[in-house]
Amino acid sequence: MEATRIQLDASDIPTHWYNIVPDLPAPPAPPLGADGRPATPAQMGAIFPGAILEQEMSAARWIEIPQEVREIYRLWRPSPLVRAVRLEQALGTPAKIFFKYEGVSPAGSHKPNSAVPQAYYNKLAGIKRLTTETGAGQWGSSIAFAGQMFGLEVRVYMVKVSYDQKPYRRLMMQTWGAEVHASPSPLTETGRKLLAEDSDNEGSLGIAISEAVEEAAGRADTNYTLGSVLNHVVLHQSIIGLEAKKQFDKIGLYPDIVIGPCGGGSSFAGIAFPFLADRAAGDAHAQNLRCIAVEPASCPSLTRGQYAYDFGDASGFTPLMKMYTLGHDFMPPGIHAGGLRYHGDSPLVSQLLHHGLIEATAVQQLATFEAGVQFARTEGIIPAPESCHAIRQAVDEALACKVSGEPKTILFNLTGHGHFDMSSFERYFSGKLENYAYPAEAIAASLAHLPRVG
Ligand SMILES: *Cc1c(COP(=O)(O)O)cnc(C)c1O
For ligand 1, is residue 263 a contact (CB within 6 Å)? Predict the structure, then answer.
């Protein structure tokens, strides 16, 4: 029998992360301060350690992974690459479908790939406490775990709707020693102001970011950590695609299509960028490669947003970044793929889309759960609702192969398991989930508040 699970040895964990910046067609647009001038490292230094800032601005193609980080990666890496043979059979497709399974990490998703190095570099810089925001609880639990690995205190601002809907993620964070608060909270200026306006405010990732940044900016012993969007997070996540390339090498295959769910874009970048490196280097295998970022129709930043400078958070604390955005005060509805509810997107992913080097598509909620359930019933793994977006697209591409008769090789990022999202599946099974496309007028209204620069 042909192997369906392609394993690597611990010694195969990559020694360097891949940075796509030197392979871009143009240098990235710099982050700007509120005055419209390029943000200085000093401005950002209030909330990030030097090593992270260096990575954020780096144009080096390869950046060494510290030994201490690789040792923690070994707890779950290399992650498996699996051929979804039973799903292929159920679909009757000639396509070969592979998934890279990131749900094997302690927190159950790809997010510890960046949480661990972020905690490490902060520890090295003498920082004692970390703040962060979390939506679905995935990033918060990852940084809670990573902080514990390096003896750092962690305070998490958790989007209120998730805090109420996901008590188990909150308990995971507490088990790893973190302090968790519903956001908006009374602990910050931002939170107090919003609660005074509306005590039932459900929160959003943007608001929670504002709270975590405000606290980190106000305390010298405290830094902020972000689970997606920024260049250094994208860099750390490249470990996913770098491993996948080694795994494909081992079986003598190369993907035609690489698919990932896309919230802030880090895991999509993580799986896709190392393959795009091959295309940039002129590698013959990679010339027809398609990379597809899949987002929810209810939060369609890449497919319906504007490529413009905007704040990373709701109240304008962060530098301005050039990205596809729905406007920083865009308030996404309480959909069940909480990790995909963000108004913007990684500037690097945005730039590649702007240059036509990757594709983006938006899918409806019900169709993603349908694909996720089919996946669970064929491959056994219960996927996170975010990951179901990639599964939907992979299934659709495989069905297109059935029509065209082409035996394409499809790779998707199974970014996490759904063990803490069973209430979302419950709502799906009981018919309570609905499709939702964000109304064009509402998008236009929040885009009207984009900061004016240049
Ligand atoms: C956070 C999360 C995502 C989306 O975040 P990106 O930064 O776009 O990768 C996708 N899947 C899972 C399971 C997540 O936890």
Answer: yes
